[in-house]
Design goal:
207 residues, mainly alpha, 8 helices, 69% helix, globular
């Protein structure tokens, strides 16, 4: 017999939750494009630099698709979090992050591209921090509050390293890609657990 919690995600919500794996597709595509783009360095060049290669149109499509999937995952988050703390603000920042990534596909030149980057990365950090706040009261999500904060801190460390390396000529691209990868791992882990039947707001700690 299929548990009720698992059966509850056999609908459009399941498809929305699958959007949480969009980062894996995004990473796979930009790694392949970076390997094929002439003169592109995976270690030193940013993800956005692919947009200025002969494969730029493919990378712009990659940004646009990833941003759309992030917005789809925001809808899934809204469904999972409601009712409860963060049920409106978390999906809001997830959507803003998705729109920032879509902006990276549209605005390939500075300063608008940098603005979109800042919106995307800062929104991602806020989603992690807000989820940590939510997870703190979820008994069956024990450990996820620390995991979310740890992911946010590591992202900030890598992005700081990215900024420094960008100025001194170090492997800035690697720092940016690692920051993207750890955030993607968190989203994929969250989506996988929700698809597996875990729910939010069922068991709360007594205060």
């Amino acid at each position: 017999m299929i548990p009720a919690s698992s059966a509850a995600v056999r609908t459009p919500q399941r498809m929305l939750l699958l959007c949480g794996f969009g980062g894996l597709l995004f990473i796979g595509v930009f790694v392949v494009l970076g390997a094929l783009a002439p003169g592109y360095s995976q270690l030193h060049d940013t993800i956005s630099a692919i947009e200025f290669t002969p494969l730029g149109a493919a990378q712009r499509a990659n940004f646009a698709l990833f941003g759309a999937l992030m917005c789809g995952f925001a809808v899934a988050m809204r469904n999972e979090l409601s009712p409860g703390r963060g049920s409106a603000v978390i999906p809001l920042f997830q959507t803003l992050g998705g729109l920032g990534v879509i902006g990276d596909a549209i605005f390939i030149y500075e300063p608008l591209h940098m603005v979109c980057d800042l919106v995307a990365f800062n929104s991602a950090l806020l989603v992690l921090i807000l989820f940590a706040w939510r997870f703190k009261r979820e008994e069956q999500w024990r450990g996820w509050s620390a995991y979310s904060i740890g992911t946010a801190l590591l992202m900030m460390l890598l992005l700081s390293a990215f900024g420094f390396m960008n100025h001194v000529g170090g492997p800035a691209g690697a720092m940016e890609k690692l920051a993207s990868a750890i955030r993607t791992a968190w989203s994929a882990a969250l989506a996988a657990r929700l698809l597996g039947g875990a729910r939010l707001g069922i068991t709360r700690r007594r205060t």
